[in-house]
């Protein structure tokens, strides 16, 4: 079953899109959802991404600031890899977070999704290394290419096993502008991390 989003992309089978948590900072993986189905994100209408890109429009986020944990990062634009997985920022010394461009821009209706690494291999901590420290009420500001700067407030921070990633809660439609920040978490093993840390936030102003 394919569920179409009002934002112009589809979650085929509602497969979970997880941040890869390998020791080198691998990419987001398509994984089983609550019902055991597996799918990929596609653009509505059969194309892989073109319809979604048109719906996002010209305004994009250019940086993200989270004062309480010292994050001030430019935002890369992330799409889909050839295998249907979601891209993540490259593993570099000057690690940046990335906005999944087939989600709404921050401040528009729906969940805007930003991905960042917890660690970046031999370079050490990633841009979202302190994400688990966020608490309800903490402020997040996204600066947009048109000069706008919507401000969000954290509503919850959850650590979930990769096998139980809450796809509908992260990528499903919402009635108001919201924000999702995703990184790795849980126990570190030889292959990476066992879980994802997900921050949920709602628009306060902007």
TrEMBL record:
Name of the molecule in the record: Class F sortase
GO molecular function, one term: hydrolase activity
Keyword Hydrolase included in the entry's annotation: yes
CDD domains named in the record: Sortase_F (cd05829)
Keyword entries, A-Z: Hydrolase
Endoplasmic reticulum among keywords: no
Domain of life of the organism encoding this protein: Bacteria
Any Pfam family hit: Sortase
Source organism of this protein record: Streptomyces roseirectus
Family annotation (Gene3D superfamilies): Sortase
């Amino acid at each position: 079953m394919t569920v179409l989003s009002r934002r112009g992309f589809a979650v085929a089978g509602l497969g979970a899109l997880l941040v890869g948590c390998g020791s080198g900072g691998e990419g987001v993986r398509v994984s089983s959802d609550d019902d055991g189905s597996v799918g990929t994100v596609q653009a509505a209408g059969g194309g892989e991404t073109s319809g979604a890109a048109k719906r996002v429009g010209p305004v994009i986020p250019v940086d993200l600031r989270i004062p309480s944990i010292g994050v001030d990062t430019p935002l890369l634009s992330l799409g889909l890899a050839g295998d249907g997985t979601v891209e993540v920022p490259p593993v570099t010394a000057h690690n940046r977070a990335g906005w999944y461009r087939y989600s709404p821009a921050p401040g528009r209706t729906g969940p805007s999704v930003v991905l960042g690494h917890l660690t970046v291999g031999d370079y050490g901590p990633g841009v979202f290394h302190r994400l688990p420290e966020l608490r309800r009420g903490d402020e997040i500001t996204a600066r947009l290419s048109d000069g706008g700067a919507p401000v969000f407030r954290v509503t919850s921070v959850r650590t979930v096993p990769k096998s139980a990633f809450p796809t509908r809660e992260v990528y499903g439609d919402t009635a108001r502008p919201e924000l999702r920040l995703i990184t790795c978490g849980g126990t570190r093993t030889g292959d990476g991390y066992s879980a994802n840390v997900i921050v949920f936030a709602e628009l306060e102003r902007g």
